[in-house]
Amino acid sequence: MEWVLIKNLKNHSGQEVEVRGWLYNKRSSGKIIFLIVRDGSGLLQCVIAKKEQPELFQLVEGITQESSIIITGAVREEPRSPGGMEMQPKDIRIISIAENYPITLKEHGVDFLAERRHLWIRTPKQSALLRIRSTVEQACRDFLNRRDFVLADAPIITPAACEGTTTLFELDYHGEKAYLSQSGQLYNEAAAMALGRIYCFGPTFRAEKSKTRRHLMEFWMLEAEAAFFDFEDNMKLQEELIYYIIQSVLEKHATDLKILNRDVEKLQKISLPFPRLSYTQAVELLRQKGRQFEWGNDFGAPDETAISDNFDAPVFVHRFPTKIKAFYMKPDPSDPGVVLGADLLAPEGYGEIIGGGQRLDDLSLLEERIREHNLPGEAFAWYTDLRRYGTVPHSGFGLGIERTVAWLCGTEHVRETIPFPRTLYRLYP
Ligand code: 4AD
Ligand code: MG
């Protein structure tokens, strides 16, 4: 008997197959039992009638939620069932009976669930989120690989800060101070000077003291960097990447998006190019909407939401004041008070999903900035070397995976978009 994943059952309609998984739910009318079985790839409804299969019916009465089972039987299409397929089991083999599974089918509080994240991920909505996350990550790699970008992994343990010194996780590196990486960007710049077009993809760490729905202490970032790419090339690459990710998710996850109650029309109608507005225009927009906002301040989450509410697609906000952006950003030659950096804000209030821009490629200005930002010059000596030996215009960006998944899935909080989130007050499990 062939073992088939639930998501592939539609290719086996009318055939007898084997499914291996866990019991998610059971409903009984006294005469008929409906089982909902999950195997990680989807949900399968099974029907057993007492009259026709009295022994199997009795066996099934004793199977509890999350017990592991192997079932065999013929499958057929059934549009009213959760996954679109239904099985009439011929045989059910119990692998292990689960006793008193704590996450029942009633509503639980978020703290209760977070404490049991190792089990919570078994529920349909959480599994759907993680499957979509996997596709988003794969789409990122596929897109960049096809564009001739080389994967160059950046280190996790680093001697210096990339994104400001206030959110560093410090560690003791054989008596020397080291930090968990906030971003692979600086190494990406070195790799781009070696390989041309590169990306890194891995976990990044920020000791953020913020407990918001958009912040994690550990999050995954896709970071691309390209030599000879200017600010415009960079934004074009970003919007094409996002568009590609959207299409991949829509194509592969119709069922998951339904489980998540996602309004897919909002994703379907997004087209290229994405709207763009300068920071200064964004400030004007905020004021028109009645918000008090002083030029020179950074946007808070409510400001970002107010801006993105004006658009159906992600929107680039570019040319931020030099003072509020990182030391490595290139000033706009025609207005050095602003930098050639852009944030991409997701629609529907999901906030900034990409930060990026053109890098400072001039040695003396870069050294000046490192001093202004009180960064240790020695730790950045290798980085300034990149401007000493064949410096070129170059640009890059970082895409936050969790925020992107939260937006695509229409999920309120980023903590549900990563298997085991690290949040401000929670390290367990
Ligand atoms: O805007 P950020 O800080 O940019 C950088 O780190 C650049 N060095 C990247 C680069 O150019 N190579 O972070 C990039 C993205 C944000 O837009 C956001 O999506 C995500 O990373 N991000 C977070 N996601 C979850 N939790 C946090 N604490 C995050 N901080 C940033
Ligand atoms: Mg940013």
Automatic annotation (TrEMBL):
Family: Belongs to the class-II aminoacyl-tRNA synthetase family.
Keywords carried by this UniProt record: Aminoacyl-tRNA synthetase, ATP-binding, Cytoplasm, Ligase, Nucleotide-binding, Protein biosynthesis
One Gene Ontology cellular component annotation held by this UniProt entry: cytoplasm
A Pfam family that the UniProt record links to this protein: tRNA-synt_2
Entries under PANTHER family matching the protein: ASPARAGINE--TRNA LIGASE, MITOCHONDRIAL-RELATED, ASPARTYL/LYSYL-TRNA SYNTHETASE
Annotated catalysed reactions: tRNA(Asn) + L-asparagine + ATP = L-asparaginyl-tRNA(Asn) + AMP + diphosphate + H(+)
Domain of life: Bacteria
Entry's localization field: Cytoplasm
Presence of keyword Chloroplast: no
Chief localization: cytoplasm
MF GO annotations: asparagine-tRNA ligase activity; ATP binding; catalytic activity, acting on a protein; nucleic acid binding; transferase activity
E.C. no: 6.1.1.22
Sequence ranges assigned to domain Aminoacyl-transfer RNA synthetases class-II family profile in this UniProt record: 130-429
NCBIfam families: asnS (TIGR00457), PRK03932.1 (NF003037), PRK05159.1 (NF003483)
Record text on subunit structure and interactions: Homodimer.
Gene Ontology biological-process annotations: asparaginyl-tRNA aminoacylation
Protein name: Asparagine--tRNA ligase
Xref: Gene3D superfamilies: Bira Bifunctional Protein, Domain 2, Nucleic acid-binding proteins
